[in-house]
Write a structure and sequence with these properties.
It is a single chain. The strands form 4 sheets. The chain has an 8-stranded mixed beta sheet with strand order 1-2-4-3-5-16-6-15, covered by helices on one side. The chain has a 4-stranded antiparallel beta sheet with strand order 10-12-8-13, with helices on one face. It is 34% helix and 25% strand. With 407 residues, it is of the alpha/beta class.
Length: 407
């Protein structure tokens, strides 16, 4: 089976994809409720002959392309939500509603629509099915989990055997980067409260002051991360909020910190929970106080399947040129809820540098109110999604065989 020249074909759709992206960019929506975005996606998919369903608990869109030949299913994902960031780009299609597509999800949505068009044009050549997962709420509690619960992985009637996604970033224009194994960190939120007994600030001896205990915990957490964890399996603990008395002359009954935690393995997370609890309780005890430790685990580690990643890197190199494909050396400590999909389905997540030419890619990062992305790359983005999905039957069998050998 000859693979179509998706990269060239995508250029025929580029103008439409740019218009779609800019329409979405000017009308960003947050979280689970994206009615304008959902309606726009549905309009764009109309006429492609896809089996389409929408979510009940969130404004998701799931579209299934049934190929002309028998075979398994593969999933392509694009997230659709924006951030509560006031845009400061000066673009003529900039958002004015107080929200912003500062993480490029408008490109992800448009790129996935482009992949659907490319693949639908070759329906009769495709063995099996393609599931297009248009997901809300990646930036908040996570929309992937409820979509999985609603059956997105089995939307084609058979379980997906592979899954792919692309995330644009403020990086060298047109450069694809990924790696096998852990790609992005999991995250958890730590809420830690020291309970004491408050009183007047002029009489600390009559209190059990939780504030100095909390201050010691903050310093101990910073020291602990460098002394308890292997540098090749690191954790990051960033204390971001401190809360105590509301008046300067009051020693409070309790003091609280909140920290953001990133980790690259379940083992590190378990050890961290043990060490944080031990440190907090012992420091609190030394101050005649008690400690209450609450971990709220969010997204798991994003782990790329090694066999899938090898094939994806090879295909990207052959289509776009090896100079545009870089295998990452180390994981990144950001988090991504595509991790829930990759826990259940072998696949690969890829980054695509999208800083416009002439702009320093280090000047702004994703989530900045001034970050800009080059939507002239949407054709390449759509083609990069379409290529691993097309003719995935043989590829999927090789990945399943690799999985069986590892067991």
């Amino acid at each position: 089976m000859t693979t179509p020249d998706f990269r060239t074909e995508a250029q025929g759709y580029l103008g439409d994809l740019i218009s779609l992206r800019r329409k979405l960019h000017a009308n960003p929506e947050l979280g689970f409720d994206l009615p304008f975005t959902q309606r726009t996606v549905l309009d764009e998919l109309a006429g492609l002959g896809l089996e389409i369903t929408t979510g009940e608990s969130l404004t998701s869109v799931v579209a299934v392309l049934k190929g002309g030949k028998p075979g398994p299913a593969v999933l392509l994902r694009g997230d659709m939500d924006a951030l509560p960031v006031v845009e400061d780009t000066g673009l003529d299609f900039a958002s004015t509603n107080g929200n912003m597509h500062a993480c490029g999800h408008d490109l992800h949505t448009a790129g996935l629509v482009g992949a659907a068009r490319l693949l639908a044009a070759h329906r009769e050549e495709i063995p099996g099915s393609i599931i297009f997962m248009f997901q809300p709420a990646e930036e908040v509690e996570g929309g992937a989990e409820p979509m999985i619960a609603d059956g997105v992985l089995e939307a084609a009637g058979v379980p997906a055997i592979a899954a792919y996604g692309i995330h644009v970033e403020a990086d060298v224009r047109g450069r694809f980067t990924t790696k096998s194994g852990p790609l992005m960190a999991g995250f958890a939120d730590l809420n830690l409260t020291i309970h004491g007994a408050g009183g007047h600030s002029s009489q600390p001896q009559a209190t059990r002051d939780p504030v100095p205990a909390l201050a010691e915990v903050v310093l101990a957490l910073n020291t602990m991360t460098g002394r308890s964890f292997d540098i090749f399996d690191p954790v990051v603990v960033s204390v971001t909020q401190l809360e105590a008395a509301q008046a300067s002359n009051v020693i409070p009954d309790s003091a609280k910190l909140t920290a953001s935690i990133r980790f690259l393995s379940a083992e590190s997370l378990a050890l961290l929970q043990e060490r944080v609890t031990e440190i907090a309780e012992n420091i609190a005890r030394a101050h005649r106080c008690t400690a209450e430790v609450d971990f709220q685990v969010g997204f798991p580690v994003t782990v790329n399947n090694p066999a899938e990643s090898t094939v994806v890197l090879e295909r990207l190199g052959s289509v776009f040129g090896s100079e545009r494909v870089v295998e990452m050396e180390h994981p990144r400590m950001g988090s991504e809820d595509f991790s829930f999909v990759l826990q259940k389905v072998p696949g690969t997540f890829v980054f695509l540098g999208a800083t416009p030419e002439g702009i320093d890619p280090d000047a702004e990062t994703n989530h900045s109110p001034r970050v800009v992305f080059d939507d002239g790359l949407l054709g390449d983005q759509a083609a990069a999604l379409a290529h691993p999905a097309f003719g995935h039957e043989k590829h999927g069998l090789s990945v399943r065989s690799e999985s069986l050998r590892r067991r």
